[in-house]
Amino acid sequence: MAETTEPVTMDKIVSLCRRRGFVFPSSEIYGGIGSTYDYGHYGVLAKNNIRSLWFQAMVQERDDIVALDSAVILNPRVWEASGHVSGFTDPLIDCRTCKLRFRADKLEDGRCGRKPSKRPGEFSECDLTEPRQFNLMFETHVGALEDASSLAYLRPETAQGIFVNFKNVLQLARRRPPFGIAQVGKSFRNEITPGNFLFRMREFEQMEMEYFVPPAEAEQWFHYWVDARYRWYTDLGVRESHLRRREHEASERSHYSSATTDLEYLYPIGWSELEGIANRGEYDLTQHTQHSGARLEYVGEGGERYTPHVIEPAVSIDRILLAFLVDGYDEEIVAERERTVLRLHPRVAPVKAAILPLIGKNAEMVEKARALQQELRRRHVVEYDDGGAIGRRYRRQDEIGTPFAFTIDEQTLEDETVTVRDRDSLAQERLPIGGVRAWLDDALERDWKSPKSE
Ligand code: GAP
Predict the structure, then answer these.
(1) Is the minimum distance from the CB of 159 to ligand 1 under 6 angstroms?
(2) 35 lines ligand 1 (CB under 6 A)
C-alpha cells in the first residue's frame, strides 16, 4: 500500500522542473535575469498540451469564437487609449541605503537586502523614499531613431490586440454578439515583486478571450464564463479542494472592470489568482472609439446599434502549468522505496506513453519496441527508453508524469503481448501488441480523476 507525503513546496517543484528539464532560469550561464525562465523539452510539450486544450475548449468546439494572433508591438496610442500609459502602475518605494526597490502596497512581503533578513524599514539604517508610481510596461523604440516619437511598448496583455481588431473580425468573420475572439501569445510586464517561479514572470504566455455581448446579457455571460472556466480545470483533474472562486471587492477591481471573479488555486504560496474573469463593460471599445475615431460598435440588420459589453477570461499558460505541477506532484513510499510522481491528467502529460524493452541489449525486444514506437508516435508523443534497470526507467517516467508504460519482455517474443503499467495505480495488465494503439487512443479519451486525496 502506498503512503503519500505532503505538503508540496515550491522548492520541490522547482527542483523537479530543473532535474527533469521542464524549466530552467533564463540565460543561466550569465547569472540569469530576474523572473525569466526558459522551457525545456518536457515543459514545451506540457505547454503545447495546455495551449491546445484551451484552444479546443474556446475555439474548436464552439461556433461563436474565432482566433486571432495580433502583434506584440502595437501603435503606442493603443496603450494611451486603454489606460495603460497612465494607469498600469505599481506604487514603489526605494531604499537609499541598500538600493533595493519594493512595492509600497506589499511592503510586508518585501525583504531588506541586509542580513539577518528583515522587512524594509526595520533596520535603523533603512532610508526609504516616498512611494511613487512605476509603469510596468517595457519600453522599446521602433525604427532607427531613439526619441519620444519612436517610443513603443511590448504588450502587457494580449487583450488590446483583440479590441483594436474588433471591426475587422465583426466584418470579415461575419459575427454578431454574442461572439468571442481568442488569442494566445507572449505578454511582458516589468514586475517589481517578481519571484515565486512561474507564478509571476516578466515574460509569460497569456491566453485571453474577449466575449462581446449585448449589454443586457453581460451579467448572465459573466456567470456563464466563470462556471465554464472553473469546469475546464476540474475536467482536467484539478482537485476542487485546491480551486475556488473569489469575487473581487469594488476597491480591488481594475479601472475597466465592473465585476471580476478570480479562480484561485492553492499554490504553495497560498491561495492566489490562477485566472481572472472580468466584466469589462463597454470600457475598451468606447476608449478606442474615442481615441481612434473608428466607431467600434455593432450595427444590426434592422439598423439597431450598440457598443457591446465584454466578458474576459484571462490566464497565462505558465500559471496553469504551475497549478497542474503542484496539483500532480506526489511522493510516496512503494515497497519501501520512495517514488516521486507527477499525477498529471493524461491529456496534459508531456509524454503519453513510454515504450521500454525489458532488456535493452536484447535485439529482438529492441526491434519490437522500436516498431511499436514508430506506430504510436504518428499520433502521440511517446518515448522509447532502453537505458538502465527497468525500475529506474519507470521512476524516470513517473517523474515526468507519463501515464502509461508499455514493456516488451520475454513473453512478447512468444505470444505478441506487452505489459501496460499504470502510473497512478501501478497496476499492470497484458495486451496484444497489435491492440496497443487503439488501447492508448481510448485511454487518453477516458475521464481521469486525481488519486491524490481531496
Ligand atoms: N487582460 C486582463 C489581464 O491581463 P491580469 O489579471 O493582469 O488581467 C490575467 O492577467 C492573467 O494573466 C492572470 O490571471 C494570470 O494568469 C496571468 N498573469 C498576469 N501576470 C502574470 C505574470 N507576471 N506571470 C505569469 N502570469 C501572469
Answers:
(1) yes
(2) no
Mean pLDDT over residues 185-210, rounded? Answer: 93
Q: What is the mean pLDDT of residues 256-273?
A: 94
- What's the pLDDT tens digit per position in 135-162? 999 999 998 888 888 999 999 999 999 9
β-sheet bridge partners, residue 166: none
pLDDT at 280 over 60: yes
| CB 179 within 8 Å of CB 209 | no
The model's pLDDT over 165-179, given as tens digits with 9 standing for 90+, comes to 999 999 887 889 999
**316 CB less than 6 Å from ligand 1?**
yes
The three three-digit cell numbers of residue 450, written as one number: 486525481
Provide the whole-model pTM.
0.95
Is residue 284 lining ligand 1, measured as CB closer than 6 Å?
Answer: no
Mean pLDDT of the chain: 94
The continuous run of DSSP H or E covering 39 comes out as strand 37-39
Spatial separation of the C-alpha atoms in residues 23 and 46, rounded to whole Å: 11
Q: Which of 50, 186, 202, 316 should be mutated for ligand 1, with most atoms under 8 A from CB?
A: 316
- Smallest CA-to-CA distance from 424 within 396, 402, 454 is with 402
Residue linked to cell 508531456: 350
Q: For residues 123-154, b (16+ Cβ closer than 10 Å) or e, as one string?
A: beebeeeebeebbebeeeeeeeeeeeeeebbb
The four Cα atoms 186, 191, 195, 201 give a dihedral, to 10 degrees, of 0
Which candidate, 408, 395, 406, places its Cα nearest to that of 362?
Answer: 408
Beta strands at 65-68 and 179-188: parallel, antiparallel or unpaired: parallel
CA distance 223 to 227: 6
Asked if residue 352 lies in contact with residue 383, where contact means CB atoms within 8 angstroms, the answer is no
Cα(306)–Cα(282) distance, integer angstroms: 10
Mutate to test the pocket of ligand 1, among 310, 319, 325 (most ligand atoms within 8 A of CB): 319
Alpha-carbon distance of 6 to 16, in angstroms, equals: 15
Q: List beta partners, residue 95.
A: 128
Ligand 1 neighbourhood includes 203 CB (under 6 angstroms): no
β 382-384/353-357 pair status: parallel
